[in-house]
Structures
1.
Amino acid sequence: MTVGPLTVSDLVVEFIHDGYAIRPLDGLSFGAQAGELVVLLGPSGCGKTTLLSCLGGILTPTSGTIRLGDVEVTAMRGKQLDAFRRDDIGFVFQAFNLIPSLTARENIAVPLTLTGHSRKESFARADELLEQVGLGERAGHLPSRLSGGQMQRVAVARGLGHNPPLLLADEPTANLDHIQAEAIIRLLQSLRDEGRMIVVSTHDSRLVPIADRIVQMVPPDQHEERPTHDVTFGAGASIFEQGDPADVVYVIKSGSVDVIRVLADGGEELLTQLGPDQYFGELGPFLGFPRSASVRATSDVVLTVYSPRIFREKVLHKH
Amino acid sequence: MLLLTFRDLAYRKVRFIVVTILGAVVFALLFVMTGLVNQFNLEPAETVEQFGADEWVLPEGVSAPFTSVSVMPVAALDAVDAAAKSPVVITRSSVAQGDPPEEVVLIGFEADGLGAPQVVEGRVPAAEGEVALDRTLDVGVGSEVTVAGTPFTVVGLTEATTVLAGIPFAYLTLPEAQMLAFASTDVISSVLVAGDVGPLPAGLASLTSDDVVEQTLQPLEGAIASIDLVRALLWIVAAIIVGAVVYLSALDRQRDFAVLKAVGAPNSALLGSLALQAVLIALGAVAIAAIIQVFLAPQFPLPVTVPTSAFWQLPLLAVLMALAAGAVGMRKVLRSDPSQAFAGAGA
């Protein structure tokens, strides 16, 4: 069950959605060691699950590399990836995703039998794992007769079926009350202590204290709050580009701008034109999202630049 | 794979039971339709065989003895140069026993000659006023009936003596049949010959028994083609039923398949699970259909003889059909994306 270090370098995932490209992951890099519990922290939609999919060999990134020990995951394809998932990765899904027609024991054993283990061996392993997660007496229950926490423990046990060195858990404490969440957190701790690398995506800060490494999927606002000031752009100049980090809000003092969506095929779609006293670029900094469109000056333009807080107090509240 | 398949069948048992029963009704109809077509094909062969003739001498231009009117002088018998030959009368008539009369084919035969009935109960008519009837008329030995309005006593019963989809035979002695059919003993319908018929005089022609069978089947060809079309439609209905439930199952289990794919389960195992469900539904439906047809077949006004081969051909075809019909669902499995396993609850 030993595993080499995990290295994620400059990872980019780009999807085409409704004709334009979005990048849930844009140049992400981090590393982790065996026996570490890595927490991917960030709000919904920031790319945590996308990253887990890439780490687990389910999704091929647009660019960048993922290495697990000597293995370059991002270079593998087809059956190699199937074998990688089968041998090296354990998955715990947010929605438990237990098969409703199978008992707890069968939910653990069936994936093993389907991946080449004997029936006897698979059920023995399932019994062992159910004992480990404290559900030995619930082995014969269907998922519909288990609580959320119990289902999640079965899901963890299923993820451990083939004793993988890397366990990927997507929001394992979501939808659980604090008692059930605590049981899952304890279980993850004990699995980490066995020397397993565990990568957990969450927006649950309760996991932070037990993490050995935290990957902030959305960088915390490290910008010093800049004073409000004016900037000038000549006609045709780019004020910001789609995908750029968002940290300030603009109010047009004079002149006009075009708000443009850059499409996947390289084309552009004009979303709106704005003039004096109108503002733009406010949602990105409020939500921690990158810019969702590009803005270009259509004439010489003077803009007042606000930090999000000051913009909210001075401009939004006035409106 | 087996456990996954059977557990899913048990989990969605109501759906699978309903679909299996629906499929069974369709397959039972297929059994019956197959039995009907089989009976149509068997009937003339079995009936013609009972005449014991190799050749049938008829007036030139008459297509066959059971499908057209055939009249020839009794003197034609002497013109046929064959060792074993017998005159027969074949004509349409009716038999009644109180109820409305039923259409029959009247056969006049010579005692101990070719064409004499092979009775399964009672005896062969030998005297005036005696008749032997096919069992399907449901008249017992000793009953009094009228043939073309003339009273007769039933002295014997025959089996497998019907033509044209169930028209039964009524056997009389030759002279009585001649009088009933032609009001004369100078004419007959045909001369039956065992062995080589030899050269025939002008105005006469011969048909082999195989020709007679073929010609007797000809009026039913339209009916057989229609039943074959209905059979084809029933296969399509069965395929739609099985295909739809397999597709629904694939849709319902899409997340399960995504999860199993994510943990490294090969496509073959998942496809196998779905294909096995399709095959089990089809075979279950055929098994139930084989029982239903036992009760359904007697309700048909026409005789239904399901061939033994249907009991292995139908399941085999049903399995192939189930696999073909389930292909759309299986394609869904092949295309299911393991990343769907990461979708949130209810997604």
2.
Amino acid sequence: MTRRNVVVRLLPVVVAAVLAQARAAAPVAEPALVAAQSEISFVSHQMGVPIDGRFLKFDAHVQFDPKAPQKGRFLIDVDVTSVSLPTSDAMEEVVKPAWFNSRNFPAARFASSEIRAIDKGHYEISGRLEIKGQSQDVVVPVAITQSAGVTTAAGEIVLHRLAFAIGDGEWRDTSVVADNVEVKFRLALTGIAPL
Amino acid sequence: MADGKIPAGMPVEPVRRYTDMAIALHWLLAVALLAAFCVGLYMADLKLSPTRIRLFNWHKWAGISILVLSAFRLAWRLAHRPPEEPAYLPAWQRRLAGGVHHLLYLLFFLVPIAGWAHSSAAGFPVVWFGVIHLPDLVSPDKQLAETLGDVHAALAFSMAGLVSLHVAGALQHRFILKDNIVQRMLPGRRAQDSGESRA
């Protein structure tokens, strides 16, 4: 048996060992966001007309054990510069200082402080939301579902844009752009234990 | 246009006027159409601002209101026969006036519908008075939105041209021919004798 043969014969064994190691390590690793199946969108209202927008880039760091939800933590980072709106003039406008001022405040963040289980699959996540340097305490109702190894956390929350100084100056007029903005999110995560 | 003159020896009958409702709709829609046209011209090239959003929405609310009022007006006109054109007018003038009226009625519907479809294609549903959500006429599509915007503008300018012709005709009857055609559509006293205005 040559040296080369030994390597070739041992290779499957080594690969299997490495895979086993990886599999064993998986539950310990932090759940990962499946970006392609996740979405953060919002609806604002111009004189009653719904305007749809969304953020294309965001990340989530989640620790969540359904057996002990109160010990979990959700940290969502949104790249504000990735905002997408239906028209090019809205896209040009929204980055300006009166709106997101995204040059100075490129990141928005939600950090949970408390997770309260309502019933199976339903939770109330309290935390702090920071956009454009302004922080607000928010309570977010979240429904968690699981299928094919992917855990989806989804919910909707109404934010008041003026609390974050989004749409300042002449845009403060809520008869033109409503204060209420409905934000919807769907975060697909792998690596969360079954409910 | 000498052949349009009222023959000298012709007995002048009292004017048969349009109904009060037809007169009210005519002038209400005249004001609404003029306002919507002027706002439309002004707003088109505005940069994004609260003013632009306000004007666009007011324009759309006006357009839908014009559409609804025009539907009612058409129904009213079909149910209430308008006064006959006087027999002393040459046939070609009666045909021209009738043709202009028909085209105007067509445009009362086409211009708002094209504007509505343009708004739908541009991804902005029309919410009448900020309250009533109207259905989208077409799905959002950038290319289609551009085309429909051009169609809406072309139809609106066609209507402006026809309105100019209509107004020119009215002014000619009132101030040059001095007959009582225009009186039929003027608000005011009933059963007015047409003789006095001709003196």
